[in-house]
Write a structure and sequence with these properties.
- The chain has helices at residues 4-11, 45-52, 64-67, 89-96, 115-124, 133-141, 188-203, 208-226, 228-237, 239-242, 249-265, 297-319, 396-406, 412-418; strands at 18-25, 34-36, 71-74, 81-84, 100-107, 149-151, 167-169, 275-281, 325-331, 350-355, 362-364, 394-395.
- It is α/β, with parallel strands linked by helices.
- It has a single domain (4-176, 275-418), classed as 3-Layer(aba) Sandwich (Alkaline Phosphatase, subunit A), CATH 3.40.720.
- Strands 1, 5, 6, 7, 8, 9, 10, 11 and 12 form a nine-stranded mixed beta sheet that branches. A three-stranded antiparallel beta sheet has the order 2-4-3.
Length: 441
């Protein structure tokens, strides 16, 4: 499977498309992200929500009037009218265009309330190893000479970790460069030539580790020369969109992704990345979480993400690539249903978003059962895979599998053999029957 012709054929499975992973780091409060506005025809989720979230000083309850402008439709099972947090007005704009799938109740069996453990579960796809679910996909489709992915951060994201191909970790394209020593630039050409020669010699070695180091080393050097010009080109050609992003934080990171996509769409030499990852931190809101105030933590976080995604999507649409774009948004867990004094503790299941021009927009999955009597001993919604359960959980691996099968064009049998692995145990409580046809893409 490492033969170059097979690798080239497998790499063509994505085609002229782009895939972006967005991580909300810290545990986003899903209950105040997709919120019941009123009780449904067969449920009392709004009553349960009001019992769990207080009003007044420190209260986290979002009122029906707060939610009126961001209503998105009804929960498929209970008929409960739902809305997005008002801070997500940018995503609501995209939802109204049919470009957003809201996927409810996403989680996994035997969930952990530890940030590190749960984060690793989502990043690896509960593989039991250290490679990421996207990393295993990349490893199956690309070789050591390829650079198919960019992570906008200082190190490779957990879901992209593998040892078969190259992933660039770049915080800003304009300042990305090969780390020649700064003592003198007079011999830079000689150093470059020497480094590439060393890489070439290593790449020809029959020793796998040396071969990998040689190929990835030369790929990194060449990328450090081909990616920085994308920043200047984008700023020149797309000045009107360039100014709409924030200069720092999540908006600035998304602009870096837009720069690469613009370069790829224009056929920039040496630039072929089509997979991206970036994060926004700050979601560990144990206190002072707030509601809709300008200085409220959760509102600020949602505004930052929602507004930036709206600009990014509009930017990609103007480039003519919105229908070639798919974005998945996740967090390592949701928050406790009942608030504490002024925030929320670690929880279980929460919503995911999938955004793109060819996404089948709408509401998918079941809103978790937040009625007090249904909560577990830790105050969180329990995971269920029971057939016919109106509050049946959406296992996040079904979301991944649907993306792998229908956007990244990987056969289901290959997904289950090389990327995602089924649980064993009671099928009512464990992921033993995959559904990679959730219908949102």
């Amino acid at each position: 499977m490492r033969r170059s012709l097979i690798q080239e054929a497998l790499a063509d499975t994505l085609g002229d498309r782009y895939f972006v992973v967005v991580f909300l780091d810290g545990g986003n409060d899903g209950q105040n992200t997709v919120v019941p506005i009123a009780n449904g025809s067969t449920g009392t989720l709004r009553t349960a929500y009001e019992a769990a979230r207080g009003t007044g000083s420190g209260g986290l309850q979002l009122s029906p009037s707060d939610l009126a402008a961001t209503a998105i439709g009804n929960d498929p099972q209970s008929g409960t009218p739902l809305a997005l947090h008002p801070g997500l007005s940018g995503i609501k704009q995209l939802y109204d265009q049919g470009a957003v799938a809201v996927i409810q109740g996403c989680g996994y069996s035997s969930y952990s309330l530890s940030h590190d453990t749960s984060r690793k579960s989502w990043q690896t796809g509960l593989s039991g190893g250290n490679t990421g679910w996207m990393g295993r996909y990349l490893a199956a489709n690309y070789d050591t000479t390829d650079v198919p992915a960019v992570n906008v951060r200082s190190s490779v994201a957990g879901e992209f970790v593998q040892n078969a191909t190259s992933v660039l970790a770049i915080q800003r394209l304009g300042s990305f460069g090969f780390p020649y020593d700064s003592y003198s630039t007079a011999d830079k050409a000689a150093k470059r030539s020497a480094f590439l020669s060393l890489c070439g010699e290593a790449a020809s070695s029959p020793q796998p580790t040396l071969g990998y180091a040689g190929n990835t080393g030369s790929a990194t050097l060449l990328s450090s020369e081909s990616y920085p010009p994308l920043s200047r080109q984008y700023q020149s050609d797309r000045a009107s969109f360039n100014s709409q992003y924030t200069n720092n934080g999540f908006g600035g990171d998304l602009r870096e992704v837009a720069k690469v996509i613009y370069g790829v769409s224009r056929g920039a030499a040496g630039v072929k990345a089509r997979y991206f990852e970036l994060r926004n931190g700050g979601y560990d809101t144990h206190s002072d979480q707030g509601t809709t105030g300008a200085n409220d933590q959760h509102n600020q976080l949602h505004q930052e993400v929602g507004n930036a995604l709206e600009v990014f999507y509009s930017d990609c649409a103007d480039m003519g690539v919105a229908d070639k774009l798919c974005i998945v948004v996740w967090s390592e867990f949701s928050r406790r249903i009942k608030q504490n004094d002024s925030g929320t503790d670690h929880g279980s299941q929460g919503p995911m978003f999938v955004i793109g021009g060819t996404v089948n927009g709408g509401i998918y999955g079941n809103h978790p059962n937040i009625n007090g009597a249904a909560l577990g001993s830790d105050g969180n919604t329990p995971y269920s895979q029971t057939a016919g359960d109106p509050y049946r959980s959406t296992d996040f691996r079904d979301v991944y599998g649907t993306l792998l099968k229908h956007w990244l064009s990987m056969p289901q049998a290959t997904i289950l053999s090389s990327v995602l692995h089924l649980d064993s145990g009671d099928p009512n409580h464990y992921w033993t029957a995959p559904n990679f046809d959730l219908g949102f893409v």
